[in-house]
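Protocol step 4 of 6: structure prediction from sequence.
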Amino acid sequence: MSSRVKDQGSDLQGQRLKPSMKYVLITPAKNEIATIEMTIKSTIAQTLPPIRWIIVSDGSTDGTDELVMKYCARHLWIELARIPERGERHFAGKVEAFNVGYHLVQHIPHDLIGNLDADLSFDKDYFNFLVGKFMENPSLGVGGTPFREGEKSYDFRFSSIDHVSGACQLFRRQCFEDIGGYVPVKEGGIDVIAVLTARMHGWQTRTFTEKDYVHHRKMGTAKNTLLKTRFKGGQKDYALGAHPLWIIFRGIYQMSGKPLLLGGILLISGYLFAMIKRKPRPVSRELIRFRRNDEMRRLRAFVGNLAGGSKLPKQSQDAPL
């Protein structure tokens, strides 16, 4: 069921100064009262706001709905959609909530569609910057930026900028339709699958390091401890077809970060556990083959950089390598 309060008094859409691609945003939100207002204020302040922003409350019971409705009453382009509480929090549920919002924007002419988590903040030119990248490059299918958690951010000297973090992914509409949208995988990795599938379809994907956003809840720890997150991350990498050699190198790399040694060991252990148990893989053999070829290309480049005398960067706690 969708709920909106119409009042054009504070609508910001008339502030656009030049023609641009139109974009819509969808935010699945489950009990996000602690962080969602920062995301709302950042989005309202955009120099290039979305033509529609659907916030899908996934059975929130903590006051999230009431807070969002307060902003809906002042901004015509923000819409709250509610779906019944499911109890368990998982990534497939996030996709289900996203799809509710996606259905609500189908009739609205737009060029780009974005998934925006409810625990982010960013500067006022953030989406103007991203939209500009899509206008410059017709082959760009998925775009985004790095994120920061406190003072920590990704170091991309030895990591691929082809991946776009799932906390904020902006898709060209045609690309999103080509890949069939997000795949509802309960254990996670929906952002990885989306980006890899886009590239398999010939689209370019890119993280633009000139800007970033702040992630106010540590990635992957909404309901898990950091150690459990590392172990589950290894299982997820197996499920999504990561190459064993890639996981070994990635685990060694992450041993230099917190928790010292243990994080990398748990990552490798999680992968081996899933491999021994022959955990099901929710992705096609074609995607696994594509991912492994890409990982070997990146690994050769990584080793080549080290052989050439480049220093290993200080390890960010959640570095994407």
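Step 5 (inspection) to follow. Residues 226-307 form one domain.
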